[in-house]
Each structure stands twice: as structure tokens, then as C-alpha cells.
Design goal:
The protein is α/β, with parallel strands linked by helices and 313 residues long. It contains 8 helices and 17 strands. Strands 5-2-1-6-7-9-10 form a 7-stranded mixed beta sheet. Strands 12, 13, 14, 15, 16 and 17 form a 6-stranded antiparallel beta sheet that branches. Helix 4 links the parallel strand 6 and strand 7. 39% of the residues are buried.
């Protein structure tokens, strides 16, 4: 079976590697072009590209598929199926029509919930108890195609987007190599999504990480988890950004202003910030331009933090 794989972030790497290890004929790997990053602005390859290099698979990095040449090159691989996992581009009809058994997308949510660019973040923000992986046939919509199979997993109270994505990437890889031969053999039927039950997520920006302290502490903590590691959850302090990396919810309203830092708890493991409902126990922070550290370590070096009233977005 000839397979073309399309993916970019770390989430997609286990699926690519499972295909290779299961002896699928991976004709080529498509991934996003290298991007400038870091302080040096040097070009950085995607995790999928680095994996493809290690496995010796041909790598293609078209800017898009609007060019006839890019589509023709893809068609030249004559894939039986194209497997897509967080590739980062919407595929046009000219690409969807190339493989005989269609384009199969791996999406980290229980579709039709959390379609779009940030499904794992969306599930944590919504307070979902479960999420999962959907393997679906692609159409020209955004995660709207019929579903072949799904697998569900719980979201723990400590999961961040980073940790949950890592779990889902392994579930996705195992699910893919189970589903793919059955789909190609015609042993699996697809089912249409119920669009009336759909929810949508959008691409995240740095500004999305700013904290509104008037929200309940439980919602702020979900945001801290959901936006870890990027874009990060932060507040303003002394003209700089102070990232809240890890936190817990403290029930009960304190006699303080919303956003006010109320001091360390008895064992010194966190400092409390009053919110619109309850307070947030901040366990770990990172001041802009500095390394991350525990709340106790930060307060020892910045005692002026105590009593501060953080601004709200």
C-alpha cells in the first residue's frame, strides 16, 4: 500500500513512525516549510521533518497546493491513501481527489466536538472530562468529513495541553495502524458527523494568554493548563509579563481586591491571588526574561509582590 504522510508538529510523529514500522510504503512526507525561530532567527525544521530525515523518507515542503506543479508532484507518488495529522494546511479538492482510498485525517478530539486549530486546548478550557482521537475521511470543510473510528481517553485534573497531546499522539498512532488496512480493504464504514452538535476552536495568539482575574479561580486554572506550553498564561507586573505556569484552586472568597496577591500559604508552597470566585494558589511562575521558579523562591527574591493587585485583561 502506497502512503503519503502529511504532518508537522510532534503530535504527528508517532503516527508516521508507526506506519514505517508496520512496513507501509511511505512514498513521501509532506510538512510545513522551515521557519525562522529563536533569538538567532535560524531556520528550524518541524518535528515531522526531523523524524522523516532519521527514517530516510523523501521530504516535500510546498508553501501550499495552489500551484499546479505542487499538485502534479504529489499525484506522481500515486498514493493509495494520504494520511494527514496536523499538517497545517486545508487541502483543496485537487489534492483530495488524488488517492484512490481518499485522504484520512487524524484529529485530536471526539468529533464533531472541537473542530478546528486547537481542539486539545478547547477541551481543557471547556472542563471536559474526556476527549479522544477521531480518524475521518477528509472533505473540503474544516474537520467536517465522515468519521471512521474514534477512541476516548479521560482528561486528568493535572493535564496540560502538552501532556494531553502526548497521550493522544500515541493513541492516534495505534488507532491508525489498526484502522488503515480495514479501510483500504473495504471492511469499515464511515458515519456522517452531526453538524448540530459541532463546536469549533480557533488558532491561538499570544494575547489569548492574558489573565482576567475577575473570572472564577477554576476557570483561570483551566486556562493555565490549557495554554501550557504555548502561548502561556500571564499577568502584568512591574511592566513585565509574569507567567503563571502551575496553579491550584483555593475555595472561598478572601477579603481582598480582585487580582490582589495575598501572601504565601502556611507551608510556603504557593502564593494566593484573589479572583472573581475563590482564589488561585500559584505554585510556579516565570518572570519575563528569567527562568521559571517555584512561588516560594520567587517571593523570597521579590517580596514587593505581596499585596500587589494584578491587572485584568
Amino acid at each position: 500500500m502506497k502512503v503519503v504522510f502529511m504532518g508537522t508538529p510532534e503530535f504527528a510523529v508517532p503516527s508516521l513512525e508507526h506506519l514505517i514500522l508496520d512496513q507501509y510504503q511511505v512514498e513521501a512526507v509532506y510538512t510545513q516549510p522551515d521557519r525562522a525561530g529563536g533569538r538567532s532567527r535560524a531556520l528550524i525544521s518541524s518535528p515531522v521533518k526531523r523524524a522523516a530525515v532519521d527514517w530516510g523518507v523523501p521530504i516535500m515542503q510546498p508553501v501550499n497546493f495552489r500551484e499546479v506543479e505542487a499538485v502534479a508532484q504529489l499525484a506522481g507518488f500515486q498514493p493509495d491513501v494520504i494520511v494527514v495529522a496536523a499538517f497545517g494546511q486545508i487541502l483543496p479538492r485537487s489534492v483530495l481527489d488524488i488517492p484512490a482510498r481518499g485522504c484520512i485525517n487524524i484529529h485530536p478530539s471526539l468529533l464533531p466536538k472541537f473542530r478546528g486549530a486547537s481542539p486539545v486546548t478547547g477541551a481543557i478550557l471547556a472542563g471536559e472530562e474526556f476527549t479522544g482521537v477521531s480518524i475521518m475521511l477528509m472533505d473540503e470543510g474544516l474537520d467536517t468529513g465522515p468519521v471512521l473510528v474514534q477512541a476516548q481517553t479521560p482528561i486528568s485534573a493535572e493535564d496540560t495541553t502538552e501532556s494531553l497531546m502526548a497521550k493522544l499522539s500515541l493513541i492516534a498512532a495505534r488507532l491508525l495502524v489498526d484502522v488503515l488496512p480495514r479501510w483500504v480493504a473495504g471492511e469499515l464504514n464511515s458515519r456522517a458527523q452531526d453538524g448540530a452538535k459541532a463546536s469549533h476552536t480557533v488558532m491561538l495568539f499570544k494575547r489569548d494568554g492574558e489573565i482576567n482575574w475577575h473570572l472564577p479561580a477554576v476557570d483561570i486554572r483551566r486556562k493555565v493548563r490549557a495554554l501550557q506550553p504555548w502561548p502561556g498564561c500571564y499577568t502584568g507586573w512591574q511592566g513585565k509579563q509574569l507567567k503563571i505556569i502551575e496553579a491550584v484552586v483555593i475555595q472561598g472568597r478572601k477579603r481582598a481586591e480582585v487580582g490582589q496577591v495575598m501572601g504565601l500559604n502556611e507551608d510556603g508552597s504557593f502564593f494566593e491571588v484573589n479572583t472573581g470566585e475563590g482564589s488561585l494558589g500559584v505554585l510556579r511562575v516565570q518572570l519575563e526574561g528569567k527562568k521559571s521558579m517555584s512561588a516560594a523562591e520567587f517571593v523570597r527574591g521579590h517580596k514587593q509582590l505581596l499585596g500587589t493587585i494584578f491587572p485584568s485583561s
